Amino acid sequence: VQQISGMLTELFQRARLEKPGQVDPRAADFTLSLLAAMYDRSGTGYIKARSAAAALIALSGDTLLAKYRAFFQFYAVPVGKMALITRSALRSLLSDLNQIPAIVGEGCSLSCVEIAARSCFHGVLNSAIVEEKFVSWLRSEPAVLLWIPTCYRLSATAMVSHQARCK
């Protein structure tokens, strides 16, 4: 938790420099509190860096494709010169991401994580998949992660302005 706190402080300090007046000075503390509520419910002082990274990626303002590729990079395992994501790693990613809607009472059960993992590997004979297959599956908007593209679309539309007038 202390290491993550330091990284968040540095991250938000840089963001404040890039966007003066747009970043709350308490952003690092708020983010750490959210991560602790999601990944350290028993107060052990330990949060897996990979879990925290998954949450920060999911909640970032980056494009969906960039998020999906980042998920792959954090959860894939090297196999020779390639990186692949295994069923186990996918389950771990889905469980970590499921903690975000769960914090507001909208998470799903472990069975829906397993169903999603099976759907990703449907028709795959190997025990792991390449990035393109993983990203393609995420682009199909699996139900367990439907909140990610939905939040992205909501944030993207918040920036839209038009000159139409209502009567």
Explain what you see.
- This protein is mainly α and 167 residues long.
- The protein folds into two domains: 1-47; 61-161, EF-hand (Recoverin, domain 1, Orthogonal Bundle).
- It is built from eight helices and three strands.
- It has a three-stranded antiparallel sheet.
- Helix 3 packs antiparallel against helix 4 (64-75) and helix 3 (49-59) crosses helix 5 (87-102).
CATH superfamily of the largest domain: EF-hand
Strand arrangement within the widest β-sheet reads 1-2-3
Reading the helices and strands in chain order gives HHHHEEHHEHH
Kindly provide the name of the CATH class of the largest domain.
Answer: Mainly Alpha
The amount of helix comes to: 55-70%
CATH-defined topology of the largest domain? Recoverin, domain 1
Number of β-strand runs:
3
Low-confidence stretches: none
Give the structural class.
Answer: mainly alpha
Quick summary of this structure?
By secondary structure, the protein is mostly helical.
Please render the helix and strand layout as text.
Layout: H1 2-18, H2 27-39, H3 49-59, H4 64-75, E1 77-79, E2 82-86, H5 87-102, H6 110-120, E3 128-129, H7 131-139, H8 147-158
Helix pairs in contact: 1-2, 3-4, 3-5, 4-7, 5-6
